[in-house]
UniProtKB/TrEMBL annotation:
Gene3D superfamilies according to UniProt: Glutaredoxin
Transmembrane residue ranges: 161-180, 192-211, 246-264, 276-293, 305-323
InterPro entries linked to this entry: OligosaccharylTrfase_OST3/OST6, Thioredoxin-like_sf
Species per Swiss-Prot/TrEMBL record: Buteo japonicus
GO CC terms in record: oligosaccharyltransferase complex; plasma membrane
Highest taxon, organism lineage: Eukaryota
Family per record: Belongs to the OST3/OST6 family.
Cellular localization per UniProt: Cell membrane; Endoplasmic reticulum membrane
Keyword annotations from UniProtKB, A to Z: Cell membrane, Disulfide bond, Endoplasmic reticulum, Glycoprotein, Magnesium, Membrane, Signal, Transmembrane, Transmembrane helix, Transport
UniProt record, GO biological process: magnesium ion transport; protein N-linked glycosylation via asparagine
Protein name as catalogued: Dolichyl-diphosphooligosaccharide--protein glycosyltransferase subunit MAGT1
Amino acid sequence: LASIVLLSLMVLSEKVNQLMEWASKRSVIRMNGDKFRRLVKAPPRNYSVIVMFTALQPHRQCVVCKQADEEYQILANSWRYSSAFTNKIFFAMVDFDEGSDVFQMLNMNSAPTFINFPAKGKPKRGDTYELQVRGFAAEQLARWVADRTDVNIRVIRPPNYAGPLMLGLLLAVIGGLVYLRGSNLDFLYNKTGWAFAALCFVLAMTSGQMWNHIRGPPYAHKNPHTGQVNYIHGSSQAQFVAETHIVLLFNGGVTLGMVLLHEAATSDMDVGKRKIMCIAGIGLVVLFFSWLLSVFRSKYHGYPYRYVFFCSFIVFLCIAIQLHQYRRF
């Protein structure tokens, strides 16, 4: 019995030393089928392994895999070059083209997927990262790792100079305009320009751009079996980047329709042009608002849509009354 225990300790020590040597060279250890079975699946093991199952080869055309890999590398590097670096946890990667047998062994048919293989026992339900819900941002992955392994990693991102450069460029443009038009600053009091800028900001925020910035969701999801690409997430708890662009477009269409209706009711143009603007405005509002409801219906099942249509009818009725009161037509 003592010899068995001693042999087990020797094997464990060899595995840990091997992993530490690889981790000192590269934060994310690339594994094939043999390495995965020997270092992750086979006992003895007193360390956890976070494994990213992915498909990074160009012919796989997995854009999300590349985006998730960048965030995963940031997380692993933050662990490697911080006080959290320990031999109790390691970060690894299995590419489909290098370890397809591992995918078959785990009955895995999608990528990217993050799984925590704990030091004791088999992975539980919570050890599989909910990518579609939480996104693949390094900060979200760090919270999940801390929850599953009690290892807290402070994410340190490489410096990004795009923001300061854009701010400097904007200030330079504003400074140039003030310098060139120092005697005439009326453009700063242009209500239309400020209203348009404010409207763009509101549309960007209401479409979910801040959620994308915080969560880092994928742009879209491609079904590995059918090849179908989904741009709208089926859950009300998550979204894709493409979804926010679609909602932004729909909100912009509704807004444009309302602007046309307002101009049709208050402008001094001839009746024929105002009638065209009114019809176009109503058409834009009805079309894009119905598309917004279709997106809403696909995410919030069982919602009382009759109430929404009733409210929409009241809104259009109020618009018609307002147009009639102006007696422009």
